[in-house]
Specification:
alpha/beta, 12 helices, binds nicotinamide-adenine-dinucleotide
């Protein structure tokens, strides 16, 4: 089985690459990544010499480059993680989100149509459903919850999802979509909530919390997400959407306090900052479908996952210190001597 994994130098994509190489040692994994600010080739250091792994620096919007890669590799499947993924950045400049998240998805699917494919899998997000009110803890997102986006990021992801379904209906492309809640774990870029708080705590720097920190997210350990996608691409039904989440709802402020506690730092580091524009209040996934159809259940409880994550950041300082200093962006040049 040849699988193209796009965005594999990012947070979830890299964890998925590791998961697939370990669980399916006979598969060939081709990682396609543009190495934007969010992609870090040093993350993939441990698999670079694996004969079943190939890294290709490429933009998913580069039609010619993508078609050439399909000609060379004859992939059986494509799993698309490549995206602009940070909501705050999408509020500052939506255009690159539309380009990568929507146009890039269409280029990948056109290549799948041109060269044939067993499965195109789109990695989407629960953010396409918008948010839920804090005073209705009985409500959850199901796969039939209407798309109702808030940010340019979630709108671009929703646009891609609609396009994926349209390619299935119009061209018969064998697609699946997963919509997952917030992930956490190793290799998470330190601008996102959990790694940012860990890193700032370690530097005794202020911990910026939006608004009053009451926003609720449904956290899932990244390895559980990777297992879910593995199950969907092998056993999921073509044309279907699967929600992925672990019933692990936490208020942002409680997560930040927990991190302070685990690292022995005072809560006085917490500073409340002006809320994000259009900030979604609560996300909560109903994962009944993936549980009933594919037998998926999360394995890592939040209490354990957050400890594992904090330990990882303590043991892998070099990884995030290079990011903070900006040095990681020269890693590709250092490895390959070109840009
Ligand atoms: N992080 C989460 O909590 C979460 C939750 C649900 C869904 N998702 C989705 O999962 C996917 C991966 O998220 P992440 O958090 O790992 O993101 P990330 O920002 O850490 O990684 C994105 C990767 O995509 C690459 N990339 C960006 N533009 C590209 C382009 N034009 N061509 C090729 N590569 C490109 C980047 O270099 C980077 O390696 C995204 O599609 C995101 O929407 C994320």
């Amino acid at each position: 089985m040849n699988i193209i994994v796009t965005g594999g130098a990012g947070f979830i994509g890299s964890n998925f690459v590791f998961h697939m190489l370990e669980k399916h040692p006979d598969y060939r994994i081709i990682c396609l990544d543009k190495l934007t600010y969010a992609g870090n080739l040093s993350t993939l250091k441990s698999v670079m010499d694996n004969p079943n792994f190939r890294f290709v620096k490429l933009d998913i919007c580069d039609r010619e480059g993508v078609y050439k890669l399909f000609e060379e590799e004859h992939p059986d499947m494509v799993v698309n993680f490549a995206a602009e993924s940070h909501v705050d950045r999408s509020i500052k400049d939506p255009s690159v989100f539309l380009q990568t998240n929507i146009i890039g998805t269409s280029v990948l699917m056109d290549a799948c149509r041109e060269y044939g494919i067993k499965r195109y899998h789109q990695v989407s997000t629960d953010e396409v459903y918008g948010d839920l009110p804090l005073d209705r803890p009985d409500l959850f997102f199901t796969e039939t919850t209407p798309i109702h986006t808030s940010s340019p990021y979630s709108s671009s992801k929703a646009g891609a999802d609609l396009l994926v379904m349209a390619y299935h209906r119009t061209f018969g492309l064998p697609v699946t979509i997963s919509r997952c809640s917030n992930n956490y774990g190793p290799y998470h870029f330190p601008e996102k909530l959990i790694p940012l708080m860990i890193v700032n705590c370690l530097h005794d720097k202020p911990l910026p919390v939006y608004g009053e920190g009451l926003n609720v997210r449904d956290w899932l350990y990244v390895e559980d997400h990777c297992r879910a996608i593995d199950l969907i691409i092998h056993n999921g039904t073509v044309g279907e959407v699967y929600n992925v989440g672990g019933h692990n709802e936490m208020k942002n402020i409680d997560i930040v306090k927990l991190i302070c506690h685990e690292l022995g730092k005072p809560e006085s580091l917490i500073t409340y900052v002006q809320d994000r524009k259009g900030h979604d209040m609560r996300y909560a996934i109903d994962p009944t479908k993936i549980h009933n159809e594919l037998g998926w259940l999360p394995e890592t409880k939040f209490a354990d996952g957050i400890k594992k994550t904090i330990s990882w950041y303590l043991e892998n300082r070099e990884w995030w210190e290079e990011i903070i200093s900006g040095d990681y962006q020269t890693y590709y040049e250092r490895m390959y001597g070109q840009s």
